[in-house]
Design brief:
Blueprint (H helix, E strand, L loop, with lengths): L4 E5 L16 H9 L8 H6 L14 H9 L1 H8 L15 E9 L2 E6 L3 E6 L3 E4 L6
Protein name: DUF1566 domain-containing protein
């Protein structure tokens, strides 16, 4: 219900394809990211390790899951406003959120202000927000 980080890289491994290329299955992507040989840190690990609200099945959303949240921002943020301590999704005008969907060996999709997807270099920092299946 909070950003897991406002400043994290997609993965500490920035030049190897992981196979995390599902546009709809963020959980499978997240598991592929943390299964990389040499993996020590990632946006996906922050999400997979989250225990919140009595739930431990959180993950980094795929690009399409993230897009769905952006398209339903009013309803999502209205619901979040009823939860003590939760922060709105996509708050502010200058944000970039990682998706778990890899585009190339050196880049993954991220969602930037205005609900546009871009190819973000894996070693650059962005926000990450865990979700559960919906």
């Amino acid at each position: 219900l909070l950003n897991q980080s406002d400043n994290t890289t997609w993965s500490n491994i920035t030049n190897v394809a992981t196979g995390a290329n599902s546009t709809w299955n963020g959980l499978a992507n997240s598991n592929a990211i943390v299964a990389q040989p040499g993996h020590t840190s990632s946006a996906a690990a922050l999400c997979l390790n989250l225990v919140s609200g009595g739930f431990d099945d959180w993950y980094l959303p795929s690009n399409f899951e993230l897009y769905q949240l952006g398209n339903n921002l009013y309803s999502v943020n209205k619901s979040l406003s009823t939860i003590s301590g939760a922060t709105e999704l996509f708050s502010g005008f200058d944000y970039t959120y990682w998706s778990s969907t890899e585009n190339t060996a050196v880049a993954a999709f991220d969602l930037r202000a205005g609900s546009n997807f871009f190819e973000g270099v894996k070693g650059l920092s962005a926000r990450c927000r865990a979700i559960r299946s919906f």
